[in-house]
Amino acid sequence: MKKIIIPSIIAKSQGELDEILFKIAGNATLLQLDIMDGRFVPNHSLDFDFKLPEREYCFEAHLMIQKPEEWIEKEHEAIEVIIPHFEALRSPEKIIQKAKERKKKIGFALNPETELEGIEHYLQALDQVLVMTVKPGFYGSPFLPETLEKVRKLRMLRPELEIEVDGGINPRTIALAEEAGANKFVCGSFLIQSENLKERMALLKKIIRQD
Asked: Which pairs with CB-CB distance under 8 Å and at least 24 residues apart come from 180-183?
């Protein structure tokens, strides 16, 4: 199964978004947009009419918002993977159908305290599951190793599933997440707030043995 490191973007203005994209340029092909409405999590990010570069990247949208259905209706065009939080969904079946109708991949994100039992019924219909390994909403939150038990269980329940971890990823924790069974690693502050993103990306790739 392919392993990939995905830089995550938190931005409160188009200028900030453009600066981060410039910093990432040439170092990744898949990026995660952290969409926050200030209600589902106590922070705001990309909750404005932002513009994305065409054909340079693929994007997944991590929807840390109370009404993901409305966002998908308006903003789905530029996004390849849609990842709403399971805790915010009124009808998981409908949002899976909505994504599939728009030919988008769909994943559910789980907060650290959310158990797997709630999503087991939907696993066969999902393209991936995102396990939050921090409390969501901010760069630099502390890694919660106990959340990796969900990764282990997911890998047993559906061996071919794309399993993504998000939060607190650095050289130490990416090794733990890979060992647990994750194959996608969302990395925020370790990359975005570094002075040498290329060097740090190379270090993480080496740890997970990605060419």
From this structure: 180/148, 180/149, 180/151, 180/152, 180/155, 181/151, 181/152, 181/154, 181/155, 182/131, 182/148, 182/151, 183/1, 183/2, 183/3, 183/4
Q: Which of 34, 37, 127, 211 is catalytic?
A: 34
Q: How far apart are CA 40 and CA 32, in angstroms?
A: 18
| Domain span including residue 15 | 4-207
Output the domain CATH number for residue 197.
Answer: 3.20.20.70
pTM exceeds cut of 0.85? yes
Confidence check: pLDDT of 14 > 80: yes
Please tell me which residue in 18, 37, 49, 166 is annotated as part of the active site.
166
Into how many domains does the chain fold? 1
Residue 34 catalytic?
yes
Q: What is the mean pLDDT of the chain?
A: 95
* Residue 77: pLDDT over 90: no
Task: Evaluate if residue 55 carries a pLDDT over 80.
Answer: no
166 catalytically annotated: yes
